[in-house]
């Protein structure tokens, strides 16, 4: 029977791979954005600034140059620690949980759940036209999830199909993909939620892996919180049914609140995960997960799996990385679980 030996989760936002003295590139875009999602509402920047008037002084202090540098450094230390823990665990197989932000899946097909069963996992650099279409301040972070010249990582087709069969037996209608779709309107290769884990946590030398795509944020068929947790319970059984004595790692990618940081929401979610409190995780309103904050739900299956096993969460760090006085930016979190905490 397969054995879980590693469970990690981390944010993957572009700010992690952008020098802090260049975070202002995204700040300018924030100020022009007419739809900032905050606690279920879409607000223009000026309205968001007014709504958060009581916290403007704190946000302004957080975007001072020395403070941004300090927070960026804290993120790098946490990422290094996760990479070291992954290396020490030495898994034979990795299951990755992440999302796609219209990089690969478009309007022609947007599955709620997709298991990638290809033998090759290609991490392909964007071409010049694709880079030109990126939002301001994003292109500079491309090297954080795709090495120069790209990379090819080993897949695990037979293992992926075994997981798919077990998930189908558990009444999960997952899609299967052995070749990611390509085209002029989309990325050719694994999207950045996964690329960041391969690059930063597994240091471009992963064991065979199975990426699982969760549509956490593209309406109308985005996966709901309760279903994300249920999927985690089913995934645990599917992993345990794998043949042989595989040492398995599970990594989740995404979060926390962004592009409007809500530290209260982040702390509630992280505390609930640490306490194995699924009722609290489901109690958060679904519309709080609009926008990129939806990525928090990529952690939900791992949290459910950890609850089943009784593993304890070690929150390595939580770092809200602000870039404007209205509290926009990306809150970063880095966690691992183990039987002993």
Please describe what this structure looks like.
The structure is a single chain. The chain has 341 residues and is an alpha/beta fold. 35% of the residues lie in helices and 21% in strands. The strands form three sheets. Strands 1, 4, 5, 8, 9, 10, 11, 12 and 13 form a nine-stranded mixed sheet that branches. It has a two-stranded antiparallel ribbon with strand order 2-3.
Count the domains.
1
Total number of β-strand segments?
13
State the assembly state of the protein chains: single chain
Strand composition percent: 15-25%
According to CATH, the fold-level topology is: Protocatechuate 4,5-dioxygenase, Chain B
Instruction: Name the overall outline.
Output: globular
Instruction: Give the CATH level 1 class.
Output: Alpha Beta
User: What would you call the structural class?
Assistant: alpha/beta
**Beginning-to-end CA distance, first to last residue:** 23 Å
Alpha plus pi helix count: 11
């Amino acid at each position: 029977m397969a054995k879980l030996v590693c469970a990690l989760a981390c944010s993957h936002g572009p700010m992690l791979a952008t020098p802090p003295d260049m975070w202002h590139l995204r700040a300018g875009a924030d100020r022009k954005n007419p739809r900032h999602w905050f606690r279920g509402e879409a607000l223009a920047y000026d309205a968001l600034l007014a709504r958060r008037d009581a916290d403007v002084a704190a946000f302004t202090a957080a975007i001072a140059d020395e403070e941004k540098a300090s927070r960026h450094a804290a993120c790098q230390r946490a990422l290094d620690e996760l990479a070291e823990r992954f290396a020490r665990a030495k898994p034979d197989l990795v299951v990755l949980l992440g999302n796609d932000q219209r990089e690969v899946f478009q309007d022609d097909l947007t599955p709620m759940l997709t298991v990638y069963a290809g033998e090759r996992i290609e991490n392909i650099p964007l071409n010049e036209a694709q880079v030109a279409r990126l939002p301001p301040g994003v292109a500079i972070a491309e090297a954080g999830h795709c090495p120069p010249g790209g990379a090819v990582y080993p897949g695990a087709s037979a293992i992926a199909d075994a997981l798919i069969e077990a998930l189908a037996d558990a009444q999960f209608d997952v899609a299967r993909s052995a070749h990611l779709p390509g085209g002029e309107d989309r990325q050719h290769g694994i999207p950045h939620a996964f690329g960041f884990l391969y690059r930063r946590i597994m240091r471009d030398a992963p064991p065979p892996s199975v990426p699982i795509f969760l549509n956490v944020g593209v309406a109308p068929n985005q996966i709901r919180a309760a279903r994300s947790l249920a999927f985690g319970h089913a995934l645990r059984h599917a992993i345990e049914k794998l043949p042989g004595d595989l040492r398995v790692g599970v990594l989740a990618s995404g979060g926390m609140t962004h592009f409007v940081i809500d530290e209260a929401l982040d702390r509630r979610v992280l505390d609930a995960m640490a306490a194995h409190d699924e009722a609290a995780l489901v109690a958060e309103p679904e519309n709080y997960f609009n926008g990129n904050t939806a990525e928090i739900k990529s952690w939900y299956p791992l949290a459910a799996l950890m609850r089943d096993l009784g593993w304890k969460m070690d929150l390595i760090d939580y770092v809200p990385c602000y870039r404007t006085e209205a509290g926009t930016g990306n809150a970063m979190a880095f966690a691992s679980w183990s039987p002993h905490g």
